[in-house]
Amino acid sequence: MNIAVIDLGTNTFNLLIAEVLENMPYSIVYNKKLPVKLGEGGLNNKTITPEAFQRGIDAMAQHQKVIQEKQCTKTYAFATSALRSAQNGPEFVALIREKFNISVSLITGDREAELIYYGVKQAVPLNKTPVLILDIGGGSNEFIIANDLEIFWRKSYELGIARLLGRFNPSDPITEIEIEAVRKYLKEELRLLQDKLKKYKITTLIGASGSFETFTSMLKAEDSETEVGHYPEGNTIPLADFELLHNKLIRSTSAQRHQMKGLEPMRVEMIVLAAIFVKFVIDHSNISEMKQSNFALKEGIIYELLNAI
Questions:
Q1: Where would a tag sit more exposed on the chain, N or C end, judged by fewer CB atoms within 10 A?
Q2: Which long-range contacts (CB under 8 A, 24 or more apart) does 186-191 make?
Q3: Main-chain phi, psi angles of 158, to 5 degrees
Q4: Strand (E) positions, the chain?
Q5: Cα distance between residue 39 and residue 84, in whole Å
């Protein structure tokens, strides 16, 4: 049977369809992200604008068509930061139920972090040493400190890139003064994280979802001498290569980024602040290794569903 999982994120609505066979691992038969920018224009005011509202409905219509074509027997939908914080989020969820007969669960940040962990541990080999998992979203960023057996600490911060864009509205290109303002803000907001990184002696960062996938894609497209290493469902990102990419991005204009290989148009506006965010985490820790996971929330939901069967 086929199972559909929809992640209604702040930047994208993501559909994963998995074929589940008895006594066998699941296989992914469809995986598609549609840009919605649900938080654009209203995220920091706790509202979804009419334009963003319609983009979300249109994306759900496209996903629903595929779900029917793939003859999915069950559909699970989960909404994250934008919808759980928006005053008209319940209205959006109700309309999805009315138009598509899909029930959307509004999950907490801690719950989101837990599911991300279940997804990542399927993609990147973990052991007894604690690592830091980071999922950068549009509305929130999830941090998880865990090993192969358990989660030691997790926290969701409303520091998603769409929120940071709305707060700082950086120039094109971003200025050094603006970069310093972002870093100062992150230092204040992430004090607890910095304490936890020291407590658990974290040296490895595993990044999940769109921004980290974009970093990997751009590094591969540049065909750098240092190759990006591969896992079955992830990659290693050499810190030296990331540093060069970070420097390139913060010096670039929007027009220049539109020409960069490996960078999707939907990421052009947000990738600079995402790079600054990751650079901040690395600079304020003892991280010496960075990996990228292709699995995150959706795969975590599949993992939990199958282990509950």
A1: C
A2: 186/159, 186/277, 186/280, 187/280, 187/284, 189/157, 189/159, 190/157, 190/159, 190/280, 190/281, 190/284
A3: -80, 65
A4: 2-8, 12-19, 27-35, 74-79, 104-106, 131-136, 141-146, 151-157, 204-208, 230-231, 234-236, 289-293
A5: 11
Both structure tokens of 133: 């998992």
User: Quick check: 163 pLDDT over 90?
Assistant: yes
What the block records as the tokens of 91 is 């209205």
Q: At what angle do helices 89-100 and 50-69 cross, to 10 degrees?
A: 30
Give 157: exposed, middle or buried? Use CB within 10 Å, 0-12, 13-18, 19+: middle
What DSSP letter does each residue of 54-81 carry, written as one string?
A: HHHHHHHHHHHHHHHHTT-SEEEEEE-H
Q: Is the pLDDT score of 120 beyond 60? A: yes
Gap between the Cα atoms of 139 and 181, Å rounded: 19
The DSSP string of 108-167 is -HHHHHHHHHHHHHHHS---SS-EEEEEE-SS-EEEEEE-SS-EEEEEEES--HHHHHHH
**What are 86's two structure tokens?**
């928006």
Interior CA angle at 37 toward 32 and 43, to 5°?
A: 140
Residue 40 confidence (pLDDT) above 90: no
Domains of the chain from N-terminus onward: 2-107 (3.30.420.40), 125-297 (3.30.420.150)
What is d(CA 179, CA 277) in angstroms, rounded to the nearest whole number? 10
What share of the chain in percent tops pLDDT 90?
A: 86
Tokens of 168: 């700082």
C-alpha closest to that of 235 among 295, 299, 276, 286: 295
CB-based contact 67:15 (threshold 8 Å): yes
